[in-house]
Amino acid sequence: MNSPYPSSLLENAVNEFAGLPGIGRKSALRLVLHLLRLDEERVAGFAGAVMKLKREIKYCSLCHNISDTEVCSICADGGRDGSLICVVENVKEVMAIEKTAQFGGLYHVLGGIISPIDGIGPADLEIASLEKRAGAGGIREVILALSATMEGDTTNFYIYRKLQPLGVKISIIARGVSIGDEIEYADEVTLGRSILNRTPFNESYKLLSK
Amino acid sequence: MNSPYPSSLLENAVNEFAGLPGIGRKSALRLVLHLLRLDEERVAGFAGAVMKLKREIKYCSLCHNISDTEVCSICADGGRDGSLICVVENVKEVMAIEKTAQFGGLYHVLGGIISPIDGIGPADLEIASLEKRAGAGGIREVILALSATMEGDTTNFYIYRKLQPLGVKISIIARGVSIGDEIEYADEVTLGRSILNRTPFNESYKLLSK
What we know:
The structure is a homodimer. The first copy, chain A, is built from eight helices and six strands; from the N terminus they run αααβββαβαβαβαα. By secondary structure, the first copy, chain A, is an alpha/beta fold. In chain A, the strands form two sheets. A four-stranded parallel beta sheet of chain A has the order 4-3-5-6. Chain A has a two-stranded antiparallel ribbon with strand order 1-2. In chain A, helix 1 (8-18) packs across helix 2 (25-37).
């Protein structure tokens, strides 16, 4: 036996799981053996949900977020402020910001950030459609809510350069000491920016208590 | 939006992954978004490998290990000692023992251990077939290699009672201080058993250097 697996079917399934991010071969084997213990209907449900997602998933024609419909439920919600666009990397960030219940505008999902190492350039992202959206009129402000990383900063600057000629207000989410964090342990770059971008006392608490 | 997910297809796929052991909802979302970025052929490969495993998997008619064939490659290997049977819980333990390259006999895979809490009794395991195998003649020794837990001990005693009348030699893998462990940090039950079951000096090193 050259392969440590007693069955090629088992080995194939383990290889598939081990190909997912953050799952090693031991975990993959554990997951596969778990699936093997379920009845066939449950396993078909698992495999079917994955295929159905891939085959039938839609992206909102306005904000490019994952959606079941042509226009997503956020863009279709008349109660939201259509003049405010928050630019995010992916659906995960939309979900995280929605959870805060602090944002009542619409989103624009780039589908990633500029990352030369991963071969992702501006043309691979929904930046042209953002320009078009911001330039179509009726947009008051574009908020950039990308990760505070080198790639996020690069993407921020690129979008800023593209949108600036359109005369729309461009802002960026606050960088600072996380709530609950002790100053002593904050890294110096974050602490420095939190001092530079300090907020009037009353305004800061008004936002928190909202 | 009541659900935090912008799409029910996405939510279903996340639910399926979050139903696997050791995968939380955040990891599940990360895995699903990873699959969504792959092309459809790759995703079909993933779903297909899982379904194929469930539908086509065979169990060896002798040792009950997972197998692609009627008789597994270990049982079919004429070079192995058919008079020696190592009793294990599952395919994972077969793979672990094979990796040590210290065992040249055959296996008997129980498919679990006796666990009243999980509703697993002797009848749910391949114990009757073990009795039949051990009683058929030509078996020199049965080695019990189950986990050193309450459930493992219960199963060991149950099998011992069943096999004893057959006159076959029954042994149990050594419990002791793991190689590389410091005595200071070994738990007292393990340390106690390792003293009770001490091995003649020469014999122990002979085994290690084999």
